[in-house]
Amino acid sequence: MTEPLRLGIAGLGTVGTGVVKIVRQKAALLEARGGRPITISAVCARNRGKDRGVPVDSYQWEDDPVALAQRDDVDVFIELVGGSDGPAKAATEAALRCGKDVVSANKALLAHHGQALAEAAEQNGVVLRFEAAVAGGIPVVKTLTEGLAGNDVQRIMGVMNGTCNYILTRMESANLTYDQAFAEADSLGFLEADPELDVGGIDAGHKLSLLASIAFGTQVDFDAVELEGIGLVSIEDIQQAADMGYKVKLLGVCQMTGRGLEQRMSPCLVPASSPLGQLDGGTNMVVIEGDQVGQIVMRGAGAGEGPTASAVMGDVLDVARGTRVTTFGQPSGNLKKPKPAKTATPAPYYLRLRLQDKPGALAKVAAVLGEAGVSINRMRQRSHEQDTAPVLIVTHKTTRAALDNALAAMVGTGVVEGEPVALRIEQV
Ligand code: HSE
Q1: 3-state SS class at 414
Q2: Residues 193 and 102 in one domain
Q3: Which helix (H) or strand (E) holds 245?
Q4: Structure confidence by residue, pLDDT tens digits, 223-282
Q5: 126 within a domain of the structure (yes/no)
Q6: DSSP 3-state of 258
Q7: From ligand 1's centre to the CA of 161, what distance in Å?
Q8: Number of domains in the chain
Q9: I want to staple 60 with a disulfide (CB 3.0 to 4.6 A). Which of 26, 42, 360, 402 is the partner?
Q10: Is 70 exceeded by the pLDDT of residue 406?
Q11: pLDDT digits (tens, 9 = 90+) for 56-80
C-alpha cells in the first residue's frame, strides 16, 4: 500500500475540528484524490477534555506545538494556532527546519513573517501553503498562484472580513447604529478575541498583503497597507451612500501603479449594483483583474468550520499529490521589495462634517478644500436642530494626499467639530 501522508494538527478549535472531521469522514475520497491515505498522527490543543463532536482520543497528544512540529510521525504540520508570533511562529519554524511541509491558516503570521518563512521553506526543500489564511473557503491563493499565473495582475479588490461586512449590512438593513450592530456580531460569536483585528481592518489588511505579494511578485509588506477601520461609519453615511446609489464596504484594493505598490483597506462607497455592492452579510468576495483573463469574481464563506477546513484540505491534497508550489508563486529570492505608493490613484471622496452654525463657516471649509486643490462636485447641508450643521460633500477626483491636507487644514479653521469622515468612492 502507498505510504500514508501523516498530519500533525496544532489547534483544535473550529477549523482544526473541521479538518479532523474531513479526514475521518472522507477518507476514501481523500485517498482517491491524493493518491495515498491521509491520516492524523498527533494533535495539540489547550483543552484535552473538551467535547469537539468528533473523536480525537486515538491521536497522539502534544502539549507544545513545537514538539508536535518535530515528531517523526508527522509529514505535514498544520498550523491553526494563530497569532503573528509566539508558539505559532516557533512551531512553524521548527517544522520547516525539520523538513516538514506546512499548511497554515495564519494570516497574521504570514503577513508579518511571510518572506522569512518562505525562504526557510525553500532552504529546507519543503512547501508552506496558506490557502485558509485568505478569504476562508474561497480558493483565491490557488487561483492567483496557479490558475492566473499567465496574467499580469492589474488590480485585486476584496471584501475579506465577514464580520465587518455583517456589521455594515445590519446597519443598513435594520437601521442599527454601529454600536448596536457590533454588539449583535459579538453576541453571534463573529468577533475575533481582539475585535480591533476585525473592525480596525487589520485582519483584512493581512489578507490583502498576502494577495499583493503573489499578484505583483513582491515581498509581503503589511506595514505599508493603509488601514482604516469601520468605527467612524454611521447610519447617516450608509443612508447618504444609498441615496447616491452606493453601499459602504470595508474594501481592500491593491494595484501596482507608476509610483509603486498601492495597498489599502478602508471603508469605501462602491456602486450598489456592482457585485461588491450586492455582497451582504458575513460573506467574502475577491475580484481579480488580469490582463488576459479580464475580471474574475469569487464569492463565498470567509470563515467557519467547513469553509476554512476545506481550504486547509486543498493544500493538504496538493502535498499528497506531490504538487509543490512556492509560497508566493515564485522563488522567494525573486520577490522584490515593494516601493509603497500611498493611495496614488485619485478618486472622488464623500465627506461628512459637522460645522459650527455661524456665518462664514461653510465658506471657510470650501476655501480650505480649494487651497488644497480639492474640487467640490456636490454639497448638501441638512436642516438641523442642534448647534452644529451636518454637511455632506462629494468631491471630484482627488488624491488622498490632497484630501488629507484639506482635512488637516480644516482643524485650523476652528469651525469643524469632531472628526470629519472621509470615504473614498471606488469605481469597481
Ligand atoms: N474574523 C474574520 C472575518 C475571519 O470576520 O472574516 C478570520 O479571518
Answers
A1: coil
A2: no
A3: none
A4: 999 999 999 999 999 999 999 999 999 999 999 999 999 999 999 999 999 999 999 999
A5: yes
A6: coil
A7: 5
A8: 3
A9: 42
A10: yes
A11: 999 999 999 999 999 999 999 999 9
Q: What are the DSSP E strand ranges found in 241-395?
A: 246-257, 260-271, 283-290, 294-301, 349-356, 376-381, 388-395
Helices (H) and strands (E) in the chain, counts: 14, 16
Q: Are residues 147 and 291 in the same domain?
A: yes
Q: Distance (Å, rounded) from C-alpha 325 to C-alpha 150?
A: 15
**Nearest protein CA to atom 2 of ligand 1, as residue:** 161
Compute CA 188 distance to the chain's CA centroid, rounded to the nearest angstrom. Answer: 20
**How is residue 187 written as a grid cell?**
453576541
Are 283 and 325 in the same domain?
A: no
Cα 282 to middle of ligand 1, angstroms: 9
Q: Is 379 part of a structural domain of the chain?
A: yes
CATH code of the domain in which 153 resides: 3.30.360.10
In a domain, 341, yes or no: no
Are 365 and 413 within 8 A, CB to CB? Answer: yes
pTM of structure: 0.95
Q: Which of 207, 247, 249, 364 is catalytic?
A: 207
Tell me: do 191 and 179 sit in the same domain: yes
Question: Same structural domain for residues 217 and 153?
Answer: yes
Q: How many CA atoms lie within 13 A of 187 on its CB side?
A: 6
Q: Are residues 155 and 52 in the same domain?
A: no
Residues in the chain: 428
Task: Look up the CATH number of the domain holding residue 119.
Answer: 3.40.50.720
Which residue from 141, 161, 199, 285 has its CB within 8 A of the most atoms of ligand 1, so it is best to mutate?
161
Average pLDDT over residues 107-133: 98
The answer to whether position 412 is within a domain reads yes
| In a shared domain, residues 358 and 314 | no
Residue whose C-alpha is closest to residue 392's, from 372, 418, 362: 362
What pLDDT is recorded for position 1? 65
- Mapped onto helix, strand or coil, the DSSP state of residue 240 is helix
One-letter amino acid of 188: L
Which CATH number characterizes residue 353's domain? 3.30.70.260
Task: For 1-82, list the strands marked E by DSSP.
Answer: 5-10, 38-44, 60-62, 76-79
Choosing from 241, 276, 300, the residue where a domain stops is 300
Between strands 101-104 and 76-79, the pairing is parallel
Are 26 and 51 in a shared domain?
yes
Spatial neighbors of 222 by CB under 8 A, at least 6 apart, are 111, 112, 205, 206, 209
Ligand 1 binding residues, C-beta < 6 A? 161-163, 190, 192, 198, 203, 302-303
Nearest to 266 by CA among 247, 280, 249: 249
Q: Which domain holds residue 102?
A: 5-138+310-334
Q: Specify whether 21 is catalytic.
A: no
